[in-house]
Amino acid sequence: MIDRRFLLASVAGLFGLTAFRWLRGSPAQAAGKFEIEKTDAEWRAQLTPQQYEILRKQGTERPWSSPLLKEHRKGIFACAGCDLPLFSSDTKFESGTGWPSFYQPLENAVGTTEDRTFGMVRTEVHCRRCGGHLGHVFDDGPKPTGLRYCMDGFALVFHPAAPSAT
Fold this sequence. Notes:
Elements: H1 4-24, H2 40-46, H3 49-55, E1 75-79, E2 85-88, E3 92-93, E4 101-102, E5 110-115, E6 122-127, E7 133-138, E8 148-151, E9 156-160
Antiparallel strand pairs: 1-2, 1-9, 3-4, 4-8, 5-6, 6-7, 7-8
């Protein structure tokens, strides 16, 4: 005969697992086709493991871990997957969150999708050319847009501006 406590513990465990999966949701997937499409194996060969986890699996780096957080030179922040220019250094600001933050992307640089992971609704930001996950956008940023593009630094590469001839 099955022990009643064992049966109750099993049912509770299944319920807990189901609740965890519901709260976690599924990773946000950028909809549609992209100019640059590669197989999973091609992305793995091109990207570092950390870049792959962020750009292709919608992961997140630890806060304060990206060297780009402290990048203050003039230049362009581009997608680490396809090198599309995404943000100008002129729109970068210190948000205090531990991730590089910008108040505006370059024109025609990013796309957004609804992200329902972890039991909440957020707006996921992806590269419009390769679909790589970049981070999320929130409405608590500075003027003039009031937006905070909270980007994973390992999803980006920085290209410093050429020195000006004086």
